[in-house]
Amino acid sequence: MSQIPFQTIDWATITKTRHNGETGIAWWQTLQYPGLRVRIVEYSKGYMADHWCEKGHIVHCLEGAFVSELKSGESFSLTQGMTYIVSDDLSSHRSMTENGVKLLIIDGDFLKNQP
What we know:
Layout: E1 16-20, E2 25-33, E3 36-43, E4 47-48, E5 57-70, E6 75-79, E7 83-86, E8 93-97, E9 101-108
Antiparallel strand pairs: 1-2, 2-3, 3-9, 4-8, 5-6, 5-7, 5-8, 5-9
């Protein structure tokens, strides 16, 4: 991963992109660096991801609540102030929310599953 100089981020200036879920909509504000992606993601009421994700993430709940469902059948409820962490290829997971949620999501090469 390359070095990132000190900087501040005014999220109000970062364009939102729309991503449709199986139900509902996700809005992403994304900063992309070599080997690192930082996002503010907002899920609408009734959102459910349209795929099972195998990528690693650090997901921190800024506002609201959501459920992270694992393909194994387990599910975890996260509310404001809670975080989950997983490395690449260690779970198939997807997110859903009844009432909407705002998340900070960080992912990148540092979460690759190393042999």
